[in-house]
Write a structure and sequence with these properties.
The chain is an alpha+beta fold. About 30% of the residues lie in helices and about 25% in strands. The strands form three sheets. Strands 5-6-7-8 form a four-stranded antiparallel beta sheet. Strands 1-2 form a two-stranded antiparallel ribbon. Helix 1 runs parallel beside helix 2. The longest helix has 19 residues. It starts with a strand and ends with a strand.
Amino acid sequence: MADDNWCHGKYSSIKEYPSGSASVADIDNFIKRVEEVKKIKVDMVIIDYLTIMQPDSKGADNLFMNGKFLSNGLRAIAQKRELVMITAMQVGKDNYGATDITMADISESKAIAENADSIWGIIRSDQMRRDNKYILKLLKIRNGSFKWEMTQFDLNTDYLSIENAT
């Protein structure tokens, strides 16, 4: 299913694939098609989420190798097409509702985390859920250091915009 939308004056295109059916090549081909048909340069792609993509047949039985294949492939697309590639992962079930997370709490293939240029965590405890608050935490950055680790924000669900960041 495809849906085309305008978002804050910029064009967006949404493509949904059934679980386990989208390959790295499918993502690359979709980006190419959008750029050709719409005569635009895609500057960001969001994959929700990487581990339900079509596994590599050589590593399908190995979570680490499958995660490595998929994350390497998406990273290569981002570099080749000079765009930002964002993928989502989950923390382990023991961390649902936690007030803090670390790299050790990522439940998916560690190869995905190793390939990422940066990793951000979205933290939302039960109390934060009641207050409509979120914390965005920087867990990893490949090049350089960072001056802050966390920021709190409100999410405006009407416009999907971040507000009141501190």
